Amino acid sequence: MKIFCKNDFRSFYQNGFIEHKIFKKNSTFVLIFFLFFCFILSMLNPVKSYGEKIITLNQAYLYAAKLNGTIKSQRESYYQSTLLKWSAISMLLPNISLTYKDQRFHMNSPSSSSQSSSGSSGGGNIFSFFYPTYGYTFSLTQPLLNIPAIPAYYAAQNSIKSSKMSLNNISQNKLFDTASDYYDVLSDENLVRADKKTMEEALSHMRLAKAKLRAGLAIITDVLQAKSEYYQAKQQYIAAKNQLKSAEANLRAVIGVNFNFKVVKPKNPSLLNNSLKKYIKLAYKYNPGLKSLKFLKKESKDEVYYYETQYIPKVNFEATYNGLSDKHFIPQGNEHYWTAAGVLTFPLFQGGARIISIEKARSQNNAQMYELIQAKRNLRANIVSDFYNIQNLKYQIIALKHEESYAHKNYKLVEEEYKAGVATSVDVITALAELASARHNLLSEKLDYYSSILDFKTLTGSFKKKLIDLRIDKFKY
Q: What are phi and psi of 126, to 5 degrees?
């Protein structure tokens, strides 16, 4: 057994102490680095203390533009429409093909008499095979005059613009749905707070009624009525919380996320101080539905030109190069030759196809024109109606604010009178019910006001600017 001396023990202790200090220093460095990393992560993703992420209205717009399934599906439709122009471009591009043929010939001959007399099982014809032959052909067809390609290309371009417009329309509609659901969540949160406050006031009145009953200043009926009002207020509070959960689920579905989050109050939507005539001009210029109809009308007009030019003569240049291998039949060996020709195609009569196709395209163009005219009329009517409706809602909110303030003061007054024994418990419950109704009416009217402004902005194309700011779908057309 080895025994440590005093010096050995002292050196062992000092080395261990030094190693402990180094480990402690490294641990402190790792801890500081970890805390710094957590701080940076919290700055990038703000999270509340209970673990729910905070989403602003602008972040909700970004989520919807990137994750909404309807927008992503329409992007694919837009991509498909971009391929249409190549069908028109291909009408002017050459067609080049290569044909290669490899074949073998055989010739059968009758069997000999000796073989037939021997009675062999393989009797019948004798097959004699020749050597294989092959050939290849290069062919070129180049259109020189193909007028229908021009209106076909313009029709394809208009189809691309129309599809792009549809993509922006759907994107704007989803941004509107996002904003609408976002304000629904905010309104329901305010409703939950208002109902919670009403429930606390009802609970305070019930406790006061119980205290007065114990003091002999109230009867049991007052307590029962106060309890009934409290349970009713509690039921409204629970219903408001369930409504809030439903609104949050709708918002999550629109923006395409699955995690829980909290919203923050953005700047309330408002209208600029423009006259009604200016708003109508803005709607005619930027309304997404109206612009879509304009492009559909242009597309149908180009389609008429396309069918009309189908009966203009076409000129193609055709050339072929042939290489054959016939050395077993021709003493000279391989043969190579080429041909060239100009082909003129002049349609004279194709039954009723020409008349039907042209008239059908013209009828479609007229239908788009009538639909565009009616859409302008409907848009003007909606602008006028929504403009004055917003003005009325603004004044109604002012009136409801005064009504809610009066109901709150009246409830406080009746509560003090009840404490003094002047008013009854029924008076307090009636005043509390009127206060709860005034709060609900004010919140409902505010939500209608904000929703009406968002609808009005959709009609005037204001969400177009939001799309440009997000840099997701630029409104080019």
A: -105, 125
SS3 letters across 276-310:
HHHHHHHHHHHCHHHHHHHHHHHHHHHHHHHHHHH
Specify the pLDDT at position 167: 83
Please state, for a pLDDT cut of 90, what percent of the chain lies above it.
Answer: 27
Question: Cα–Cα distance between 444 and 244 in angstroms, integer?
Answer: 14
Q: Which residue bears the tokens 């242009």?
A: 298
Unique residue bearing structure tokens 């395209």: 361
3-state helix/strand/coil string of 179-211: HHHHHHHHHHHHHHHHHHHHHHHHHHHHHHHHH
Choices 3.30.420.40, 1.20.1600.10, 2.40.110.10, 3.40.50.1970: CATH for 58-108+127-470: 1.20.1600.10
Sequence ranges of the domains in the chain: 58-108+127-470
Query: Residue 333 has which token pair?
Result: 């060996």
Contacts of 248 (CB under 8 A, 6+ apart): 185, 260, 261
Mean pLDDT of the chain: 79
Residue 120: pLDDT above 70? no
H or E segment to which residue 471 belongs: none
Distance CA 361, CA 307 (A): 8
What is the token pair recorded at 468? 């440009």
Q: Which residue has the tokens 């709607």?
A: 283
Query: In 109-148, which ranges are continuous DSSP H helix?
Result: 113-118
What angle is formed at CA 367 by the lines to CA 363 and CA 370, rounded to 5 degrees? 135
| pLDDT bucket at 13, cuts 50 / 70 / 90 | very low
Task: Calculate Rg over the CA atoms of the chain.
Answer: 42
- 374 alpha-carbon distance from chain centroid: 28
Taking the C-alpha atoms of residue 176 and residue 65, their distance in angstroms, rounded to an integer, is: 11
- The amino acid occupying position 104 is R
Per-residue model confidence as pLDDT tens digits over 158-169 = 888 878 888 888
Q: Residue 343: which H helix or E strand, with range?
A: strand 335-345
Side chain identity at residue 471, one-letter code: R
Q: What are phi and psi of 187, to 5 degrees?
A: -65, -40
CB-based contact 276:122 (threshold 8 Å): no
Longest CA span, the chain: 142
Q: Could you tell me which residue, 238 or 24, shows the higher pLDDT?
A: 238
What Å distances lie between residue 21 and 29, 32, 94, 271, CA to CA? 12, 17, 81, 67
- Say how far apart CA 408 and CA 386 lie, in whole Å: 32
Angle at 278 between CA 277 and CA 281, to 5 degrees: 90
What is the arithmetic mean of pLDDT over 386-398? 93
H or E stretch covering 252: helix 220-255
Q: Hey, which of 11-20, 149-158, 397-406 has the most confident mean pLDDT?
A: 397-406
Angle at which helices 57-67 and 69-82 cross, to 10°: 50
